[in-house]
Amino acid sequence: MATAMSIAAGANPKALLAAQLCATVAASSLPGSSAAGASALVSQTCRVTSNPSLCLELLRSSNRSDGATTVRELAVVAVTAARRSALRARMRAMDLSHGAAGGGGAVAVAARCVALYADCLRAGAEALGRVSTMRVHDARAAGAVSALRRFPRKCAGLFHARRIASPLEKVSRETEEKLGVASEIVRLSR
To answer: What is the DSSP letter of 66?
Structure first.
């Protein structure tokens, strides 16, 4: 919406500019505005996932969701955010694998988890590429994102098999949950 502004002699242009800025900000919060539309899209999308609050957290972690106009764009944001969670898990595993916390067994298992999360990040990059370039719903893209959940599960399983309390349990569970919600959003992008 473009408006013409004529400045009368003696009028303060800064005050007029401030008034126009206020009007623009107020208009952006109206239901028909793109910002409100993006929020509505995020809310509508998250409402139909298995974990709406986690979905909102995932999508609001990036400003890109504010500008999203399609569920596919939200799917890209969700997969990117879930990959960041996998990166945090890998960094945590790396810290544990270099330390003496938890003893030798936990250090060795953490080192194996580092490799698992590296594989997860590589596969996640491929899945993100699929989601980013799909023009229509692609079940293979949703499957590729969903398959990423196996990496945090395997890491948790390594600790469980050795009967060691996992120092990565929380971060692995969060990563798996975020990957699950991301895969649901990809499935919704029909």
So the answer is: G
Q: Are 189 and 70 in contact (CB under 8 A)?
A: yes
Predicted TM-score of the model (pTM): 0.76
DSSP per-residue letters across 98-139: HS-TTHHHHHHHHHHHHHHHHHHHHHHHHHHHHHHH-SS--H
Tokens of 50: 């298995």
Contacts of 51 (CB under 8 A, 6+ apart): 177, 180, 181
Buried b (16+ CB within 10 A) or exposed e, 53-71: ebbbebbebbeebbebeeb
Fold of 34-188: Butyryl-CoA Dehydrogenase, subunit A; domain 3 (1.20.140)
Cα–Cα dist 66/36, whole Å? 9
Angle at which helix 34-47 crosses helix 13-28, to 10 degrees, equals 20
User: Other C-beta atoms within 10 Å of 103: how many?
Assistant: 9
The 10s digit of each residue's pLDDT in 107-159 is 999 999 999 999 999 999 999 999 999 877 788 898 999 999 999 999 999 99
